[in-house]
UniProtKB/TrEMBL annotation:
Pfam families in the record: FeoB_associated
Lineage of the organism: Bacteria, Bacillati, Bacillota, Clostridia, Lachnospirales
Name used for this protein in its record: FeoB-associated Cys-rich membrane protein
């Protein structure tokens, strides 16, 4: 029973993350999770490390 609950929680977490990414991309967000919030000095280009 505990395995089922853990599985459901994992599915909900992963589903929520995917939904967040899809919504952000539909809004035209360049860098998801960027704290600059669109006023990035990199002119909308993500930094590569």
């Amino acid at each position: 029973m505990a395995d089922i609950i853990v599985g459901i929680i994992l599915i909900l977490l992963i589903g929520g993350a995917v939904a967040y990414i899809v919504r952000a991309k539909k809004k035209g967000t360049k860098c998801i999770g960027c704290p600059a919030g669109g006023s990035c000095p990199n002119k909308g280009k993500c930094k590569e490390k």
